[in-house]
Amino acid sequence: MSVATPYFDQLFDGNDDPWAFRQRWYEQRKRALTLAVLPRPHYASIFEPGCANGELSAALAPRCDRLLCCDTASAAVALAKSACRTSPMCRRSKAGCRRHGPRASSI
Length: 107
Known about the structure:
By secondary structure, this protein is α/β, with parallel strands linked by helices. Helices cover 37% and strands 19% of the residues.
């Protein structure tokens, strides 16, 4: 089952961090653990579906040559763009990630 895009648009309406990714210790620790379990220090490409406000995106960007961030909410894509503004290899997409994500051969 999939949640409709208007739900996520509403979450980001007037709130640039609806899940408190920046403030909550749990979210900071989860992000640190996600980065720590990656088996290599650098990748050619990384695909991040559901990038939300780009907190993980900003941490992934230095670890790859190309980063594709995807979210269905327009505000989330704009926030991820801002979070990755210093990373020229980071590309953002407003799309349903399952339908519009990259092919496995392009990652």
